[in-house]
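User: Before I run my own analysis I want an independent prediction to cross-check against. Here's the chain; please return only the structure tokens and, at the end, one sentence I can use as a sanity check.
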Amino acid sequence: MDGDAWEQIYTRNHPLVYRYVLARAGDVQTAEDIAAMVFAEAVKRIGSYEERGQPLLAWLYGIARNLTNQHHRSNFRRRQIAPETPLDSARDEPWEHSWAEDAIEWWDLRNAILKLSADQREAVILRFLAGLTTPEVATLLGKNERAVYSLYTRALRSLRRLLGEDFVESRIVSAPSDDIPTEDRRDR
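Assistant: Structure tokens:
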């Protein structure tokens, strides 16, 4: 594959891969490092890539998932505990009250998402944090759209219970209403 093709692949997919990794890794520096590693790994393994009716992005997400899991296992072994929050990233910037609120909300959201089942967590991260459409999430997870809607419904119900209705509606559910499961549409 030539340089121009890789440039197009990178330009089109890096923001999506980065958002996905950031949601799973929890800190900016780690997300930047892992996202870069995803594309380095893709360049090395492109010869083994087989098109199976899924977009190239699905393959990249698979690499990102594996590298993020590897990062978490490595950190667990080293017993590193406090991932960077948005507040940590702002250390050198003038203090603003909103940074503290953002950090607390980020931490609360991260902890609540970690309490979801693995499938629910992946669906929520891909749809609401990485910004993919439901058909794209279904393709990446190897499930039909109905199954993904079911994952959304159960996940959003759990998140509402853990974080409150207002928090979930204002900070998580930012999708067009026709992309949210019917039983989850709250008189919009």
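Sanity check: Residues 85-97, 182-188 have pLDDT under 50 and may be disordered.
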